[in-house]
Amino acid sequence: MKNRWRWAIVGLVIVAGVTIALWPRGGNDDRGPDLTAERTKAALQPCAAGGTAKGRLGGVAATCLATGTELDLAKAVGDGKPALINLWATWCEPCKSEMPVLARYAREPGAARVVGVAVKSEQADALQLLTALDVHYPNLIDGGSVVAALHTPDALPASYVVAADGTVRFVGDPRLLRSVDDVRAAVAKYGGAA
């Protein structure tokens, strides 16, 4: 009789354990916080994802801040025309002065595609900063692969021009883009016309 009770208790413990393990957990998943409101306020241009993956950026993953979806960086910038990638962070003061300049350049007819990449920053903070600065060009957030692929220097901001053939060149002169003319000259010098 004692043996029967022991097996009954063991069975109940197993059933309880399985029930607890399989019981649905409400509202807590791996997607992180809901950033729909922040994305709407930021009103970012969509991230392109249909370009051609050329050069060393192929296979480099980043998350589009406009949608929260992961995409290939090379496809986001590789449309056969020069593009400018600007790495920035929410805590970087020079970045905060450069990004509005890039936004003005991006609105010009014939401008190269400008793609921002937030590094070492949280998505919500990045979206709030973009909203505050009135910056709407496409932006991504890096989980570390963009910084690694570009061999980014320690100081931010850091800009790179991607030529039509996928060649990536660091913009070292001028290091900080202070005017639309600086941006235009950097794109011409490091990647071709625009």
TrEMBL record:
It is found in: Cell envelope. GO terms for biological process: cytochrome complex assembly. InterPro entries: AhpC/TSA (IPR000866), Thioredoxin-like_sf (IPR036249), Thioredoxin_CS (IPR017937), Thioredoxin_domain (IPR013766), Thioredoxin_ResA/DsbE_sf (IPR050553). CDD domains: TlpA_like_family. GO terms for cellular component: cell envelope. The chain crosses the membrane at residues 7-24. Keywords: Cytochrome c-type biogenesis, Disulfide bond, Isomerase, Membrane, Redox-active center, Signal-anchor, Transmembrane, Transmembrane helix. PROSITE patterns: THIOREDOXIN_1, THIOREDOXIN_2. Residues 26-192 form the Thioredoxin domain. Its main location: other. One of its GO terms (molecular function) is isomerase activity. It comes from the Bacteria. Signal peptide: none annotated. This is Thiol-disulfide isomerase/thioredoxin. It comes from Labedaea rhizosphaerae.
